[in-house]
Amino acid sequence: MEYKQTVLYVEDNQLNMALMHHIFKKNLPSVRLLKAETAALGLQIARQKLPDLIILDIGLPDLNGYEAMDELKNDESTRPIPVLAISAFAQRSDIERAQKSGFSGYITKPFQVKTLTEAVEKLLAGIA
């Protein structure tokens, strides 16, 4: 299969990783999903592969999502890549912090598959 676009998913939870893999395979088959279990690995992959979109968990064990976002925005090569935050932190203050940090969107866990799929499609199409 030839992929049209690439998304990097940075997530430390194996069940969430498996769920996202299934969602992409079923609902976004033309999009290649790269995976990283730590922020450090995610940053390395982002710099090497320059994906079209990054989905970044906020609650990572090494760097949190905000720290990883700072790294992405401070790197000229990764700065233009839209980043979608995904987190169980669902307070209004969490969402506002993510917006101020430069995230292109924020999805709370547990999420609806349709909500996630639509957000990914919009960001990949450049509609944010």
Automatic annotation (TrEMBL):
<feature type="modified residue" description="4-aspartylphosphate">
    <location>
        <position position="57"/>
    </location>
</feature>
<dbReference type="Pfam" id="PF00072">
    <property type="entry name" value="Response_reg"/>
</dbReference>
<dbReference type="InterPro" id="IPR050595">
    <property type="entry name" value="Bact_response_regulator"/>
</dbReference>
<protein>
    <recommendedName>
        <fullName>Response regulatory domain-containing protein</fullName>
    </recommendedName>
</protein>
<dbReference type="InterPro" id="IPR011006">
    <property type="entry name" value="CheY-like_superfamily"/>
</dbReference>
<feature type="domain" description="Response regulatory">
    <location>
        <begin position="6"/>
        <end position="124"/>
    </location>
</feature>
<keyword id="KW-0597">Phosphoprotein</keyword>
<dbReference type="InterPro" id="IPR001789">
    <property type="entry name" value="Sig_transdc_resp-reg_receiver"/>
</dbReference>
<dbReference type="GO" id="GO:0000160">
    <property type="term" value="P:phosphorelay signal transduction system"/>
</dbReference>
